[in-house]
Amino acid sequence: MDKIYTLGIDIGSTSSKCVVMADGSDVVSSAIIEKGAGTDGVDIVLEKALGDAGITMDDIKMTISTGYGRKSYNGDKDMSELSCHAKGGAYIFGEVATIIDIGGQDAKVLRLDKNGQLQNFVMNDKCAAGTGRFLEVMANVLHVDLNEFGEYDAQATERTPISSTCTVFAESEVISCLANNADVKNIIKGIHYSVASRVAGQAKRVGVVPPVVMTGGVSRNSGVVRALEEELDTSIAVSEDSQLAGAIGAAIYAYESYLKNK
Amino acid sequence: MSNVANVLGKFDVSIAELVKKYQAEGKKMIGVSPIHMPVEMVYASGMIPMGLWGGSGEVSAAKEYFPAFYCSIVQRVMEMSLTGQLDCLSGIMVSIQCDSLKALGQNIRRAVGDKIPYIHVAMAQNRKLECGVDFNETQYRKVKNQLEEIKGDFFSDEDIEKAIKLYNKSKKLMQEFVAVAADYPQIITPSKRSQVLTIANYMDRAEYVELLEELIAELKKEEVKPWDGKKIVTTGIMTSLPSLNEILEENKLAIVEDEVAEESRQFRTLVDEDTDNPIRALAKYLGDIEGCSVMYDADKLRSDMIIEKVKKSGADGVLYVQTKFCDPEEFDYPIFKKALENAGIKMVMIEVDQQMTNFEQARTSLQTFAEML
């Protein structure tokens, strides 16, 4: 019997992700690019994922877009990234009760029931503090590649306190710390705790129930994961596919939707 | 052919148009701040009460009077008063139900009190006690004197009684409209529902009653069709933001009941009729109100009232629309959230203010909520 291919496209604020799935259960191919909504990122990941899978759009039975730019893609349907991260998180990690998804400009905490269904959620306020954007701003100030933040954090000897209230204030705090010759590694550790304390506050509003996992681009930053584990006093699982959770969820929903409407 | 659209069109009137109409008719208007104000007395005086809910828009001049982190309704009303948008009013009436309103009254009096008479409406916190009703009656008598001074004419207890009966009639009709509209989510969309209910804050109440009677009659002639979306109950201070209602419509979320200050909190409680003292009846009304975040409520009945509304209306969930920096609503939220969780009712909270132009976060939250339901 022919496989049923579906496509999940997650157009975030700073990156685009695409997943081709077979029969709603196997990830055939995937692609990520650090180009988000309003760019040609979606076309690039789409081309790559389809190419790697050795198929064309004609082979795709259904496409669901998600993420901040979900409305800008003309697929079969769009769904919110929270629903898709819940679905994708359950696929990647199996049993999950709490998902922390920190993306480019949003931080969300999702609570799932025993069946993996989204039960409750909370999103960050209209504020960059506690999001990937906050980390990007700090990387620019410190002239450190964001991908190296995790390693710097691991080498820190102490944590320099950084405000979690406002990105702009935190930025001037970091500049002051640099002016006072504070160690960059310690500042980075402080920045990670700043993000973690902000997101932990959100998480406690919906209740943190283990197993806890992390999805979204910031899950690649081991420093933030460590800080969150400490703030929430629980272990947090991450996966190489964490950033793809939204696209995977969208592809699974596309499969379910295709079967329902067939 | 259906006449509903035609009747609904009569509610689609701007406040500016109404102001022009009343000016042309030579009617004076009194601005009335939220909420539970003695509008019946204004109407009895022969003047038109005009709600002061701030509308949508930027805040600039009002920043001289208020910090940035302040209730947007209050900031917008202050902005309107400072930029001459309230000059059409013959008086501005402000209550003291929350800290923000207290400051609004003082600032309006200070800033524009010399050109627009200010009417201060003090309300007793212990509104249910006899002494609280006594206090409120005394305040309302002062309000009556000020209204008579502005109007330049005396109005009687009979005039107030007549106004109470008219307003009670409109309240009953609004309750009926809410119930009937729930059967027609395809026709009475969140935008239409909001338009019908909130224009009551600005329209001559006698005219509004006629229109609403006509609308309900026309609606009832329509065939009830199955709704393929979800049903929700809304709660909060105000939900009449066009973008918010558009998002609800996009996600097929029909409002089947509400517990919103700008909407049903104003018409769910009636004023006693045929008493020998209608001003005291208005004072007692303040004590009869239950479950409103801006009225002292020792028993915190709001959550139970909403749970009851959810059960009665068959709603799938509750939308808590938090007006940014509204303390009374923020104080209620944790109690409310816990009660709904215990009752197994799904809910979502979004934050709004009247300066919002980007609703993307609200869009994501509400789409997720619709998918979750």
UniProtKB/TrEMBL annotation, chain B:
<dbReference type="InterPro" id="IPR010327">
    <property type="entry name" value="FldB/FldC_alpha/beta"/>
</dbReference>
<comment type="similarity">
    <text>Belongs to the FldB/FldC dehydratase alpha/beta subunit family.</text>
</comment>
<keyword id="KW-0408">Iron</keyword>
<keyword id="KW-0479">Metal-binding</keyword>
<dbReference type="Pfam" id="PF06050">
    <property type="entry name" value="HGD-D"/>
</dbReference>
<keyword id="KW-0411">Iron-sulfur</keyword>
<protein>
    <submittedName>
        <fullName>2-hydroxyacyl-CoA dehydratase</fullName>
    </submittedName>
</protein>
